[in-house]
Amino acid sequence: SLCPYVRVRSVRTSRLPRSPAPDPRWRPPHPMQSRRATPTTLPLGPRVMSPAASTLLAGTPRQRGNSGRRVLTAAPPGKPVVRFEARPLEGITVVELGGYLAGPLVGLHLRHLGAHVVTVARPTTAGPGSEWESAWRPDTVASLREGKQVLEVDLRTPSGIAAVRSLISEHADVVIENFRPGVADRWGLDACACRKIRPGLIYLSLPGFASTDAALAHLPAWEAVILAVAGVFRDMGVNRQLMGIPASYSPLPLASAYGSVWGALAVVAALYRRARVVAATAYKGGPSCPEGPGETIEVPLASALLDTLVHNSIDFECPERYLSPRQRRVLQKCDGGAPMQYEDVEQLMDPFYNHYRCSDGRPFYLVAPAHLRHQQRALAVLGLEDEVAALGVPMAEPYVGSRIPGSNAHGLGAGQVGDAWAPALHRLMRRAFLRRTAFEWESLFGAAGVPGAAHRTTAEWLGSEHAREAGLSVSDQYGNVQPGPAVWVFEEVAVEGKSDEVASSLSSSGQECQDEVLPAEKTAPVPLSSPPPSPLQPATDAGDTLGAEGRQAWLEGVRVLDLANVIAGPTIGSMLARLGAEVVKVDAPTPMYAPEVTVVYGLAANTGKRSVLLDLKDTGSAEEARGEDSGSGKAALAALVARSDVVVVNCTTECLERLGLSPAALQKMNPRAILVRFDAWGGPREGGGARAQHLGYDDNVQAALGIMARFGGGLGRVEEHAHVGTIDVIAGVGGALAAAAALLHRERMVRHAGRPAGSTRSIVARASLASLGQVLQFPFCCGSLADLAEEEATSATASGPECRGEHALLRCYQAGDGEWLMLAASPVFGGRAYKDALTKIEAVDPALAEAVAFAFEAAEEPGAEQDFDAALASSLARAFGEKGTHANDWVNGLLAAGVPAAGLRSISDVREAHLCDSVDLLHGPTFQFLTEQAHPIGGPVTMFAPCAIRPRESPLSVPLPPAPRYGQHTAEVLGEVGIDAAPLVARGVAATRWSEDYLPGYDALRRAAPAEEAEAEGETEVVLALPAWVSSSEGRGRHRCPICMEAATRAVELACGHLLCRACATKCSAVGHGSCPVCRHPHLLDPVHLADRSQKWRQSYMGWRSGQSSGAKGEVASIGKPSSRSHADDGGLICASAGLLAAFSVATTSAVAMAPGATPAESSSKRELLGTSRSSKVGEQSAVNSGGKGDSVVPALLRSTRCCSMDGLAMYLHSSTEA
After folding, report:
1. Which residues contact 255 (CB under 8 A, 6 or more apart)?
2. How far is residue 118's CA from residue 149's CA, in Å, rounded to a whole number?
3. Considering only CA atoms, which of 1007, 961, 169 is closest in space to residue 606?
4. Distances in Å between the alpha carbon of 122 and those of 44, 119, 160, 208, 524?
5. What SS3 class is residue 599?
6. Number of H helices and number of E strands within the chain?
7. How many whole angstroms separate alpha carbon 1070 and alpha carbon 1053?
C-alpha cells in the first residue's frame, strides 16, 4: 500500500546557476555550477512513494566514483598548474532532521564538501511548527535546501517514523538532528536508537543547551533566548557601554551559525577517524567492519557560542598600557558619568583603527594597529609621512617592557599610538581621507598591502564584482543570490607541458590522470607522517596508533605545522590540537605585531601548541660563503615540513610564493603534506576577484559584508559588531573543518600510475574570513538583491543602538527592578504563531492582558501614528517596567505559560556563575569556565573551557595546555628533526623568546601593587622572606593535602598556614565549612569565591584608606583573628592571594605596640616620635570607627587590615596579647 505521509521531491532547479562560459582569466567556476540540481535520479515534482527507504531510494546508488571530475582552473601560461575540485565526502549520505537554521546549515556545509544530503522536512500541514518554519524567510529555507534531496515526512505517524528509520538503517552515514529536547527520543530517532540499527553511524545532536544541564536544558532554545542567556545582548561592546546603552539586540544568528561550523567539524573529524580505523583493521587482517566505529556527538549551540567568543570572556590582570582609551574610559565610567555620544566615542578610537568619511560620503574602515609596516604604508598612501614626522610620533618598543628607562610602550608599531599624539594624527588622517572616494581608497590601500575596506550594505556586497568573481556570491538566472561554500578543498596538479592541453586531457573521460575514491572499508591505510608508499602498500603499521577499538582522539597521530598569525589562522591549529593533533607553532624571531595581538590574543589561539621562533626567509648563503655550516632557516623549515601532515598559513598566494611555500614547493619537501591556506577575501574561484591579494582583518570583512552597517543602523552610522573575534574565531574553526576534510580526502584517495609524466598532486584546503563571515548573516544573504536591500533599509536594526528586537514579541524589555529580559514569543511577525503567542501572554498576568488590549485599541483609533506592533511594544514595555516588578518573576511566569523568555545576563555574570575545576564533556553544564592558576603569564587566567564539541565515545585533548611563551620549544622541536638550534640562535635565525616577560609589563604590574602600598605607608619597611618549605619547589611537591592525602600541586594556603589542594578547599566550602578543616581557624575556603571576595575587600580597604567608612563590613567572621593556641607568638605577616596564600615573615622598623588600654592620643604621641604620620591617621580613623573607645583600637585596626590581607596587601600587627 502507498503511504500518504511520505513525499520525495527535488529542489527547484530555477535557483541553481547555469554553467558560465570558460573564463579566459583562468578562474574556476563555483563548485555548485557543475553539479546537478538533484543529487539522485529521483524524478522532479512530488511523488507518492512507499514508506520503506530502500524503495524511496531505489535506483539511487551511492556515488563513490570520481570519474569525470571537472577542472576548476588551468593556470595562465608560464605557471603549469591545474586545479581540480575535490569532494572529500563523496559517497557519504547525510540524513538531516529538524529545521530552521543550525541543522540545515550543517547539512549545507557537508553538501558543499561532496556529501549526499537527504533533508527530512515536515509537511506544511504537520502542525503549527511547520507553519512557523515555512513563514520564516522562505528564500533562506530554499537556499538551505539547495542541492539536497528533500523528503517530506509526517513524523507524527508511525509509518512516517518507520520510513525515516529505514532510511537511516540502510543508507545513512551521518544523522543531524536539532529537535527540542525529548522529541527525538519520543519518535525513536535518538542517538541510541539510531546507532542500534546502524552501528557505524555518526550522530550529531545540536541542542540549544547541553542535554545534561539541569538548569538550562528545559529552556526553549530560540536563537534570541540562547543569546540572552549567554550574555550577548548585555555585552555589546565598549561603544554601547560608553553610550550608556545597557541592552542591545543583534539580528545575527550567532549561536546557530557558529554551532553549524562546529558541528560540521566534529562530523568530518569523526568520519576521518572512522576511515582510519577501518583501513588499519583491514590491513592488519582483523574482522571485517564495513562501516567502522560510529560516534555520538553533541554540540550545544550556547556552548559553541561562548567557545567562539572566548576572547570576550577571558579574564586576567591586564597592564593598563594595553587598554585602549575606550576601555580606560569604561573603567572610569564605572564610578558614574554621563553617557557619551557616538561621535565622541569615535574620537577615542586609535587613528589606525578607525572609520573615516570619504569624498563620496561613504565611510572607510582602516585597520592597521600593532603593525609598524602597515602603519608606515598607510601614511605613505595618505601622503602624510612628513606631517607625522613633524609631529614627533616615536617608534614604539612594545617588547622592551617597563624595566628599561626611556622605552616607548606607545607610538608607531604599538597597539595604541598614545594619547599624546592620537588627536593630532586623527585630524590629519580625517582630512586626508576626504580627498578620494571610499572605493578608490580601498583599491589603493589593498595594492599597498594595508588592511582596509569601504563600508557596504549586505546587498551591495553580494552584488559586488569581487564577491561574484571569487565565487563568494552565487546567483541564478533569475537574479536570486546566496552565499557560496564556507570551506572548500581542491587538488593542484603541477604538470610539464602546456597547461591547457593537460587540463583538457585530465578533464576528459579518459584515464590519463584519474583518482578513484573508494569506500572507507576498501581504502588501504597510509601512514600519517611518512614518504609516499607504493600504491596500496602502507609504509608502516598504521594500526599501532589507533588502538584496538580506535577510541583515541579523532586526529591522533596527525602533525600540524602552524605558520599563521593574529587570531583566525592560529585558531585553526588550536582546533586541530583540541581534536588530538600535535601542533608546532612557528613565528619569526622578531615579532611583526605588538603584544596586544601576539600575546593577548594568543592566550586562547595558541593553547595546546609548542612554540618555535625561526626565520623562514634565511638561506644561510652568507655563512656558506664564509665556509660555515650552521644551517639555515629554510633548511629547518624543510625538515619540519617533511614530518608534517598539515601546514597552516594565512596569507595571499603572492605571499606564499615569496615564502617558498606554494603547493608545488611543499610537494618537494613532503609529497603528502596538505596545505591549509586561509586569507581574508578568497573564494572557491581561486584567485578570482580584484581583492584576492588584498589583506584584511575581521573588522574589514565586517565593514565590507555589511555587518557594521546592519548593526550600527546604516552607512551613515556604522559600528563594529560588539565582540572581539566575531568572525575571526569561527573562521578558524572553518579552517580546521577544511583541514579535516582534506585529511579525509587524502585517506580515501588511491593514486594510479597512469598519470602524465612529471605531474605532482597537492591537496589544498581553503577558507577565508569573507566566506565564513557570510555564514553569520546567512538569512540576510538569500533572495533577490532588490528585496534584500529593501529589507535591510526597513528592518528594525535600522534604528541602530536603540534597536531592542525584531518586533514586539521578539524584544528586550526592562523590568521594574532595572534588570532586563528577552521576550521571544514568536520568531516572525504576524500569522498564527504571533496570534497564539498573544493569547498565551494575556494569560500570564492581568497587566500584560491589559497591555495587549491597549495596543489593539491604540492601533484602531482613527489617525493613529503607531501601527499595532509599535503600540504593543510600547504598552508591553510599560507593563514589564512597572515599579516593583522583577525580571526573574516575569521570566518564570512567561515560561510557565509556554512563552519563550529569558533574563539578560552579561558574559562576566555567566563566567562567575560557571567556574569549574575541570572540563566535563559527558555530564557537564552548558557553560564551563576554567582558571589556570599556574599560567605562564605569571598569574591566573580564566577563559571558557573547550566544551563546544562533546563526543560520547572518543576523547578530546581537553583541557589543552596553556599557550606557551613564544620560542619556549625552539631547541626541543629543532632537535627532534636533527637540527642544532644553538648556531641558529647565535646568528639570530632562531630565538627562544621575544621579551623577558611572557607579556611585557605584566611582571612590573604585579611588582607594583605591593610596592605602591609600601610606599604609601612610608614608615614601615616590610621584608618579605619565603619560608624554605614554601619557596622550595621540591618541598612544595612533597607536601600532601591533609584531607585527600594527595600531592597538593595546586595548593591553596589558608591564613592558619595549612595547605589544601584546590579541589578539597572548594568542596569544603561547598558543604558549608567556613574554617580550616584541620585547626578550625575561620577562613574562606573556595579559591574562586576567595578571589571575588578579596577584590571587593580590596576596594573597601582602599576606600577606608582614603577616609571613608571602614572596610570588611560584616566580613570579620570569615577571617576571624587567629587562636591564641596556634598563633600567639608566630609574629607573621599573612599574605593572601586568589588561589595561593603564602606565609611570610615580616620585620618592621617603625611598628608601634598598642596595648589594649592605650589611648589614641598616647599612641599618636609615640608615632610622632618615630615620624609615622601615616600610621597616626590609621590609628585615629580606627578609633573613630570604634566609637572613640581606646580599648577597641586594636580590634578595629585588625578588622581594617585583615580585609585586605586576602589580597596580599595587609598585615596582622601582633602587638598585644589579645592580637
Report:
1. 102, 208, 223, 226, 227, 230, 301, 302, 304, 305
2. 5
3. 961
4. 19, 10, 10, 20, 41
5. helix
6. 49, 37
7. 17
What is 1010-1032 written as a DSSP string? HHHHHHHH-S-----B--HHHH-
Question: How buried is residue 460: exposed, middle or buried, by Cβ count under 10 Å (0-12/13-18/19+)?
Answer: buried
- 1121-1152, pLDDT tens digit by residue? 333 333 333 333 233 332 322 222 222 323 33
Please indicate, yes or no, whether the overall pTM of this predicted structure exceeds 0.70. Answer: yes
Task: Count CB-CB contacts under 10 A for residue 245.
Answer: 17
Q: CB neighbours of 86 closer than 8 A, spacing ≥ 6? A: 114, 489, 490, 491, 742, 745, 763
Q: What are the strands of the beta sheet with 929-932, ordered from one edge? A: 915-916, 929-932, 941-944
pLDDT at 844: 94
What are 27-41's pLDDT values in tens digits? Answer: 333 333 333 333 332
Q: What are phi and psi of 932, to 5 degrees?
A: -95, 100
Q: Which three cell numbers stand for residue 549?
A: 577499538
C-alpha cell at 1051: 595548593
Q: In this predicted structure, what is the pLDDT of residue 536?
A: 28
Q: How far apart are the first and last CA of the chain?
A: 92
C-alpha to C-alpha distance for 455 and 441, rounded to whole angstroms:
11
629 Cβ contact list (under 8 Å, min separation 6): 623
Degrees to nearest 5, angle at CA 922 with 941 and 275? 105
Contact between 350 and 978 (Cβ < 8 Å): no
Of the candidates 369, 147, 264, the residue with the CA atom closest to the CA atom of residue 767:
264
Strand partners, 676: 648, 765
Peptide bond connecting 684 to the previous residue in cis, omega within 30 degrees of 0? no
- What are the tens digits of pLDDT across the range 487-530? 999 998 876 555 454 444 444 333 333 333 333 333 333 233 33
Query: In Å, how far are 3, 35, 63, 97, 201 from 171, measured between CA atoms?
Result: 20, 21, 12, 15, 10
N residues, the chain: 1219
Confirm if 599 and 958 have CB atoms less than 8 A apart. no
What's the pLDDT score for residue 481? 95
Q: Which residues contact 902 (CB under 8 A, 6 or more apart)?
A: 219, 224, 225, 228, 229, 821, 822, 824, 891
Backbone torsions φ then ψ of 1009, nearest 5 degrees: -60, -55
CA atoms within 13 A on the CB side of 1218: 13
User: What is the rounded distance in angstroms from the CA atom of residue 644 to the CA atom of residue 638?
Assistant: 10
Give the three cell numbers for residue 517. Answer: 575514491
The residue whose grid cell reads 582558571 is 931
Average pLDDT over residues 561-570: 96
Q: How does DSSP classify residue 23? A: P
- Cα(1176)–Cα(1164) distance, integer angstroms: 6
**Does the pLDDT of residue 841 top 70, yes or no?**
yes
Distance in angstroms (rounded) separating the CA atoms of residues 392 and 336: 35
Q: Which amino acid is at 377?
A: R
Q: Are 295 and 200 in contact (CB under 8 A)?
A: no
CA 887 and chain centroid, separation? 30
Cβ neighbours around 489 below 10 Å, total: 29
Radius of gyration (C-alpha) of the chain in whole angstroms: 32
Which residue, 337, 356, 338, is CA-closest to 346? Answer: 356
DSSP assignment letter at 501: H
Q: Strand ranges (DSSP E) for 254-310?
A: 295-298
Task: Give the pLDDT score at 753.
Answer: 35
C-alpha cell at position 772: 565564513
Q: Is 736 helix (H, G, I), strand (E, B) or coil?
A: helix
